[in-house]
Amino acid sequence: MKSKLILIHAILLAIAFQSLSGQASYSFNCNDKINSGPYLSGELFISAEPLDVVTYFNQDWLLGDICLANGEAVRNIYIKYNKLLDELFWLEPASNKIIKLDKGGILEFHFLNFLGDTSVYFKRINAKRYALADSSEIFGREIYKGKLSLFILYNFIIEQKELAIVNGVYCEKNIYGEEPIYYLQFLNNKAVGLTRLNRKNLCAVFPGKKDQIKKFFRENRQIDINYNPDLVWLAQFLNTIVTQ
Amino acid sequence: MKVFLISVLILFISFCESAAQNSYRSLTPERIYLHTDRDVYTAGDYLFYTLYLQGNQGTMSKYAYLVLRDRHNSLIAHERLEIENLKAFGSVYLPDTLSSGVYQIVCYTNSMRNEVEEVYFNKEIVIANRFDEQLNAFTEPFNSSSAVTSSDQTSGGTTGNENLLIHPDKEVYNPREKISFYIESNSIAEKSVAQLSVSISEIVPGVPAEPAISEYFKNASQSAYTSDSKQNSYNFYSEIDEPVVQGRVIPAAQSGSKKDSVNKNDAARYYTILISSPDSIVNMQYAKTDSLGSFRLLLNHFYNGKELYIRIKDDVKATIVLDDKFDLIEPFTSSGAFNVHGIKTFLTRSENIALVRRSYNEQLVMDTVKKFLAANTIPRVYYKHYSSILPSDYVELIDFAEISKEILPALRIRKSSGSFFSYYVNIPGQTQGSTEPQIFLDGVPIDDINQIISLGSRQIRRIETLPVTRYYGEMSIAGILAVSSNGLLINNIQFKTPTLKCLALSSQAYTKPEPFIPAGSDKRIPDLRQVLLWEPDIIMDRSKELHIECYASDLQGKYRINIQGITSSGDPVNGSAIITVQSKSN
B244, B383, B468: which to substitute to probe chain A, counting the most A Cβ within 10 Å? Predict the structure, then answer.
């Protein structure tokens, strides 16, 4: 009886070993990947004073994908976007340090899951941020993509300053107020920035389409530009009237 | 009860095993077939080819390698081919100085290199030097009866397993007459197209026809061999998108007598390999070696055909050995297929034809269908610099120490024990003066400031500085100093760390000969083409018959219409037919 059991155990072991070795060689052939880029480039981010958490688009690190300017893509990395600085940060996994990524090296980035929303894309566009300044590169959140694309730049203004105690020292703390800028980008990549997406501003951008714009706003008085689906609706309408 | 449990266990384990094996088998190995315009060439001719690849859809190699070697295993030509839609085509120039003999073409992908070389596609061709009258490289059998038998074989219209039907408008043509035929097939699946290559070339008497693509792939798929680990020093990776560069760092001490003990010590050492190319933009790719000292990386398309500097970042005494993709281990031994009765007569005739064509100054016009240029997607180390300084804007400074002192405020250079050391002041996250920035000269990382310390304003065109802790992937850099020289001074730099300078491979352009147009040719000039048609890139739809036209030459004899191809679903298709060209008087 004992010898039978030993024999059965030996057979079992042999079979198990054979199947494991087969699987091992298979994984060697297929899963041994090459780790050589693409590389994210940026600089170590050390802020003189901590950034206010309200200035972050996502306060926690979220998984995202980045499309680089050289056509390559970096996937599943932890990123954070700061609306005040208009900069994208990367949590470098090896050193656990925060890296401010080179804006010029990024075409667009995408949060895989932002509060349940999987369609949050930011794109680097060239636009005027301030009326009297030259055009600069900004990260705009892509709301609608079409003949006429709509982006939002989450701009901040300092509404007031208040005294606060940080580490036992009195200091002045900025209280920020969000003042988004809406960019309408045409197919020729020219972007027009509007602080308010109202009838008056849109009529100024499309002077030949005043009647249609007025009609749209008259028929849709309830439109709320702080609500994303309404923004998409407005962008869809603008795409119907734009001629390029 | 126990016996039952054990039986269940055995059954379960064997099920797991068979499942694992099945999934492994589902990955069919890649196989290559090469269709050439003919089998016999004269030195100075072009060899035209179309390469077909069969493998797993979605994970197929993008690159194949073609080697042409002689009987002494010397490489005559080697090319990297870029595969698009399961095929690649092009040409290889056969130098005028080649001696007469049998040569071998070998084709493979990088992933095929994990198997034994027997699975590589190989084909023998004959090249005759037109000044070689003796043709001693060939032997003819004394008994001509065997030759007759093989000659009979070639005279047959088909080579077996044919799934393309060729319908020539007639069997016998007059010299310079239009040859017209159409192809039909029922084996092309619906919603699928076939990509074909067509050759019409003179039949070499006695030489059996090469196996067709269907037959070759059928036989090749039944043979899968894994390579002996002693033969290959690397695990070769599929080049699905970018070419793979791989190599090994061999520490200098390994050549010493205590080889084994050194190996164990070095196994724990990981080196960083930097790859870059001289350019006005700072560019770099890097990879880390594994515990055995091997490294591998997917080379960015930007480097295609460019000069590469491959160096170890760390200061070690070692040698970088790059994997040579054209290195074949098995020697070439001729099968003797061309040692047939009448081969010398045929070759002498071919040599004479080549001489006559030369005397009439006949030039082949090449049509370049597609070029594979280096991409503009530069792997940039940084996108924005803090300051860019043109030394020519300032008063002339004699060396870099002076330049840093006068016009680079953030950079400090100090001298100690005869050598210089540079650092950026007040870099956040770094101890001041502890680490040298990464210095680039003409886009290539160099060892330290000593290598450029002698450069003055006259030699330097531009200096870019980034006095911050930078990250490039996982690599941390204590600032960047990028110097562009007037006249690529990087070529004069002597590196302290092991460095290899080489040329990155580039893919061969898709080329084919311009079609022969009789109206443009002078009738007084003899038309002595032995290849009546070579069309490497024809697309055939199942629903339509494919009509092809070409012209017979003045050379009388038997010609084979040889069509090979592959459908978009990866199924091979082929067909052949024999036609004759003879004068009206015959």
Answer: B383
Same domain? For B419 and B538 the reply is no
**B190 exposure class (CB count in 10 Å sphere: 0-12, 13-18, 19+):** exposed
- How does pLDDT run across B464-494, given as a tens digit for each residue? 999 999 999 999 999 999 999 998 999 999 9
Contact (CB<8Å) A41/B300: no
Q: Max alpha carbon distance in chain B (Å)?
A: 97
* Contact by Cβ (8 Å): B115, B96: no
Give me the domain span that covers residue B404: 387-489
Q: Are strands A120-128 and A135-144 parallel, antiparallel or unpaired?
A: antiparallel
Kindly state the tokens that stand for B17.
């095993």
CATH number reported for the structural domain that contains residue B97 in this entry? 2.60.40.1930
Between CA B285 and CA B435 the distance in angstroms is 21
Residue-by-residue pLDDT tens, chain A, 244 positions? 566 766 666 666 666 555 544 444 433 344 356 666 789 999 999 887 778 888 899 999 999 999 999 888 999 999 999 999 999 999 999 999 999 999 999 999 999 999 999 999 999 999 888 777 788 899 999 999 999 999 999 988 888 888 888 778 888 888 888 889 999 999 998 899 998 888 999 999 999 889 999 999 998 888 888 788 888 999 999 999 887 5
| Domain assignment present for B321 | no
The whole-angstrom distance between residue A88's C-alpha and the CA centroid of its chain comes to 8
Domain encompassing residue A54: 38-118
Select from B13, B17, B285 the Cβ nearest to the Cβ of A37: B285
Provide the shortest C-alpha distance from residue A102 to chain B (in Å).
6
- Please give the Cα distance from B162 to B564 (Å, whole number): 10
Total domains in the fold of chain A: 2
Task: Report the amino acid identity of residue B130.
Answer: R
